[in-house]
Amino acid sequence: MMAGVDETCGDAPMSIRPKDVPQNKTENSSRRPAISNLALSSVEAIKNADEICQQVTSIEELRKAVENFDGCSLKYNAKHTVMGDGNPESKIMLIGEAPGAEEDLAGKAFVGRSGQLLNKMLAAIGIDRTRCYICNILPWRPPGNRSPSDAEIAVCLPFLKKQIEIVAPDYIFMLGAVAVNSLMENAEGISKLRGKWMEYQMQNGKKAKVLASYHPAYLLRTPAQKAKAWADFLRLKKEME
Ligand code: URA
Q: Mean pLDDT over residues 91-97, rounded?
């Protein structure tokens, strides 16, 4: 580990922080960043991320800034910084949790099995993936695909919010509990949140309609829930029409 890295993005070295131990990762586990509980190092990293975001005006500038950002130690275990994929002028933005092993290797969001299922579901409602902008709450893979900590989410959230503001979508489709709980600052379970339209207000005042559904990885593990996710995709299609 690089010097000082274990002091960033958390209130203790992440390897010994109890909250960072994967705890029965289920689709309903909600993890909401609670800034008041974060260590000073994380608060400073968030401040630094906010300042960086005030200076960037394009996705390309943001990509470079995130690649150079040192406030989150996840970066040092990851092979790539995985920013959004697709059309940055899209009216539809899809947001997942974090890159998995394949995404980390490829440097591109949702290219593994989850991504293939996502592509199929999008195609089934007549949307080619390349028409959308697809990204994650975190640009770096948590080691072993563990759940991200509150501190990691809080430090990376300014970059996601800036990404949303630059893309300025009309519709945001959130994939899974971690994504929707983090962006919407909501601790409710995904089975309650999914399928209901919500609203997200960007820092510049623009509003987007938000719909949450199950994460494709969860659907791969629990195919019985595919019908509900399919209903959510149809809701998205109907609203866009
Ligand atoms: N799961 C996610 O949440 N994002 C990806 O990019 C891949 C898998």
A: 98
